[in-house]
Amino acid sequence: MHDFWDKIVAQEKAKQQLNNICISRRVPHAFLFYGHEGIGKFFTALQFTKKLNLEFNPNLSENVIQKISNLQEPYIKLIFPLPRGKGETGEDSATEKLSKDVIELILEEMQKKISNPYHKINVADANNIKINSIRDIKKFVNISYDDTHFRFIIILDAHQMNETAQNALLKNLEEPPDRIIFILISSNKDNLLPTIQSRCWQINFEPLSNKDVGIILHQFYKVEDTTIEKLILFSHGSPLNSIEFIDKDIDELLKSTISFLRYALGKKYHLAYKTLQSLLNEGNTIKIVILLIKSWLNDVVRNKYSLTQKYFNEYKDTIMRYNSKFKQEDTLELLAYLEKIEKHLENNPNLNIVYLCLIFDIASIAIRN
Questions:
Q1: Do 275 and 259 form a contact (C-beta atoms < 8 A)?
Q2: Which of 84, 111, 126, 268 has its CB surrounded by the most CB atoms within 10 Å?
Q3: Which residues, including other chains, have CB under 8 Å from residue 58's CB and lie 6 or more apart?
Q4: Is the pTM of the predicted complex or chain greater than 0.85?
């Protein structure tokens, strides 16, 4: 008896929805799995491919199930952002013009994904899903194969398709190939065309609890329990956020974040920018900085309602002064703005503009008050 669902941490609602589809045997030709990064959308998709095929073919061989786990074509086609090759044209396959080093890196990242389904594939200069990758679907579909009832096309970071690639995909969704199922995975579904969204069965994946993040860090990332206790504080519902803080001096990061906020709220723009650059020059990403500011703002909200702080325990005086001076609405507005910045970062914006916008938006709270 296979325990496909049991291996996935949490996401009970999503698993139940998919289980009902398996039992009913009424299967949509396209799905959209959406929610935070790193919370199990891909792992659930992978396990769904096995469970659904086993439902339609109880004699499905263990060999085929293992090949699905290994992301082998022609059972699964995995599409994700790739860099553009030198001299690449629309007639080339998605990987044809990539260098040997880039191909090796892609294979390494895929192997990491096979070993750890919560791993996020990371390839340098892979800013979007190329139309060539979408055009390659035709070759996959044209392969005749009967080992499984269904074959799957899984598109990671589907929101990183540009409009041309999305329109090319739309043609496949409008005339779905027989026994081919599409699963689009996205942390920012609003970037997908409404016509694509409307043709997919949408399943929401919820942020994880700290306990569930801890389980994933231990089981899939092999993080020690003592380290997990520190990391889960900054998860914000996703283990990928926690992983950002491995090997970081968290106490020093908290101190630098407070300095940055003081300068920004004090409208000392040059010092705020200098402090931010210092943080980034020490090997931290803008994502880490934003996570820290969100953590501080969450403590602000908790303090407002006399709840115990979680992150900046040594800076309670700073938080209390903020709450006495600024409106709660400003705090919530800033949190919402930070969420937008995080999503915008996936589009590879000009980072200097992001830094300045971040500083000025924090400062605007002081200006308004």
A1: yes
A2: 126
A3: none
A4: yes
